[in-house]
User: Fold these one by one.
Assistant:
Number 1:
Amino acid sequence: MYSKLKNIAVSAGLTAFGVGYIDDLRPHFDALPMDQTEGLSFGISIGARVSASVLKGCIMGPTRHYLHHYKMLNLLLDQTALKISLTIQDRGYNALPIPASQIVDWEKQTAHLSHKMIALRAGLGWIGRNNLLVHPEAGSKIRIATVLTNMPLQTDNSLERDCGVCKKCMEICPVSAIRESYKDWDKPACLAKLKYFAKEHNVGQYICGLCIKVCQP
């Protein structure tokens, strides 16, 4: 079934697909009750590449064009996650698709779970200095979504890589929120700038795009 599910993602035009064993992460899914994820020990991670050409328009911050592209990628991911889930269910197993971009705690800016933590287990990439997933080909120019399932699937190996000497995201960040280690990322400073962009750039959503634009593994 691994190949069949991957083909659904590839046929939809997605860039990345992987599976990881994530049962030990379930207690950290703060917005998902433990009984809702009971038995769902496998995480399917899917990713869609963000257009580098669209991101070129983000000079001083996000644009309306980027906002539209961002929303369309999330829609594509959610639709593909649904197709994968339905295929799993047709085989008699359970599947829980997690929205690509749905905030459940606005103060903390957190979702149902951390998609990038699932993506790490599924071998899609590593965490960059900008605290985002870095795909070996797409860099941080990738949006991701997750499907949790109890279907026993072949799992992928985590990537043992990092950003090396690249510090482009540190250099472009308008509030110097990005540090040498992603663990030192200044979330409050980043969030404050996203709030500013949402209002002043007339995008109405917490997006930026600058560190994503320059990320080239």
Number 2:
Amino acid sequence: MLSKVVIGLAVGLALDAALRRLHRSGDGRAHIGELCERDHCDCECDAHGDAAHGASGTALVIARSALVHTVKVGLFILALSFVMALVISLVGEDAFAAFVGSHPTRAVFLSALVGLIPNCGASVIITELYLGGSLGAGAMLAGLLVSGGVGMLVLYRTNADLRQNVAITAFVYACGAAAGLVVNGLGVAF
């Protein structure tokens, strides 16, 4: 866990510094109004998420909007989590262990790929395979570093820019795989 925190901080700070240097940092505001407009939820928010009603109706509009969006995202996550859990149960841990166990470098890349599955089941499988000796430390770290739970689902659900989403996913995958390869190369064991 400490390795994940340290690597996450290092990569996050480096990325933030690089984006600032390129003058590409955002304004820091979550633009819920854009999501409202795209989903046609009729929550009466403008492009910046500000309610169209006066101060007295604003709290009610914001609460209603938050509830509608929470339910929609929750149902989206529930449906995709069910599908992912079904796939994981059909493939099984033994098939995955047999596929990656024989080659440590391939194991890093495949474990990172499995870690991208937006479901806690992927993290459980990776951890169990590591504890059972089927995965090395590098592969385990790669898979768990890229695992963001359902965070990727929320990203793809709420951010309309598919190219940006794919770039973020590829960056997360590359960072996890690179860290796993470094751990393998250094012979680190946890």
Number 3:
Amino acid sequence: MRPLIGVPCLAGFGGKSDSSIYYNNQTYIHAVERSGGMPVLIPILTHLDGLDTLLPRLDGLLLSGGIDLDPRCYHEEPHPLLGETNPHLDKLELTLARWALKYDVPTLGICRGMQVLNVVLGGTLYQDLSAEYSGSLRHTNWDLPRNKTVHQMRMKPGSLLEKVLGVSEIPVNSLHHQAVKKIGKGVLLSGYSEDGVPEGLEVPEHRFMLAVQCHPEEMYNDSAAWVRYFDAFVNACVKKVEEKRPAVAPLLSVANL
């Protein structure tokens, strides 16, 4: 049975009428699907107590990339180069991250998702690397194709990230201007770019909580290592399914009844 994996939505505008919508990039959805998971988009609810109905049914959580996290979430004032923020999205994702921590739910973080995990564990962020991190590489390569690799990520020897990817160093894309600054409680930084900016994060005491600053959902078609990244996450979710859920007949098997 495919594990159900929650993916929080972003907020924006779309359609012919330019109406307000909730959405997320198709690449996240298809990466999870390819590895055997069933993605479930989670809207930004007005009242988060509605999550009580959904969360017990989920087997995993994917925190995706997106806009900047409001620095007030980690008790700092906004920097002049802070980008767009959304307090409702922050509240949703921080709530989901706390739930995943409390109930030991397998969690995968990507870009903003890595930052959310660090913040929920008490860490902070560089609000803009170009202004706050001396000697940083160009990490904001938004003008390039999203699958274009631009620098190396080196893994901490013996880390979960190194074991999952099966390599000690890998070329990555880079589509961010923020990064982990102060490390959250229980966090292990397991990947770095050449300039020392944190690129990988894990929480060793958790069942499976792994995150990267790059965007593997844009690279897995070109790299077996990133296929393994999503496979390892979905496999952890499958194990959680086996712990809690009785077998149910597939939909196709009952379609003609």
Number 4:
Amino acid sequence: MNRRLGAFIRLVSAVLSGAVATTVLAGCAEAESMVPLEPVADSSSRTQVQAQTQADRLVLMLQALEDRYTLQPAVPVRTLPDEPQAAPTLLDASADPTEVPEQLSEHLNLDSQPRAFVQAQASYLQSQATSLAVSADTQTWPVAVTVEATDVAVVGSTPDGTPVARVMVATTSHHAEGPSTVTSAGYALSWAPGRNVDASGATVTGPSFDGTRLVSIQPLYGQPDRPALDSGLGPRSPSNAVHTYVRAITHGSSANISSMEGTVRSSDDFRAVLKERLMAGPRYTVVELPAARLGAAHVLYVIQEDVPGALRLDVILGQDGPTVVPRL
């Protein structure tokens, strides 16, 4: 969701990508951090087919990102005995994370939030690969990665009737030696009718431009029988913690910032660099990456309009409030 820094009134749009349809003023009663989904508004077979279609497109994007950023450089891709049909090439071999949204939008009908999501995911995978390169442990590099949706189900809808599907995604990393490793993450996908245009607004044709636009990729919260989305409000909302921290950095005091950073606090120089970066692009989107979650730590990225790169903020939700750990 886009926010303008320093605003004293936060306008929250209708729940389409996990936000509450209300206006929140400073000093109002505590808001619900999670919004339970409404019962499925349309349980027809057509909606189920659309959910599977969007899940397939999510897999295509995640596979393209893994192929671009996770595989060890200069090592041939391992041939798997049960290798599925090769996915189309969606990204250039040298694509930078900032180029990923537009390149994927040439092939898939993506709204602004999914475009921010894929940039954040690309930035995360690139940083993980950089860490492996620094360690110089070639055995940890996968020689092939496969991504598949293992479970797809329409689990509810937003108050305006937009369907939400739960998609479980398994990512298998195959290594030259030793067993493969599998990680799993759950996603909440929303889609709606949309024009067949790419990130630049140009009309596009193709199998993925069928009049349906992927509008949101989020974590799914709540209980299995009462799934919910992050509202962007309240003390238990990871994204609200990020918005509050950004406001503290750009318009708050050192004490405001320290209260959110917990016991390990950033330096004044670090905060000055962070403020300069955030002030360079006052409009931004916050994205949480389900696959990047580290135990109790939620991994979120701030994607700024017209500012290269992505800012990572880890959020730990504690009894005394959220703790935010910035990572440049």
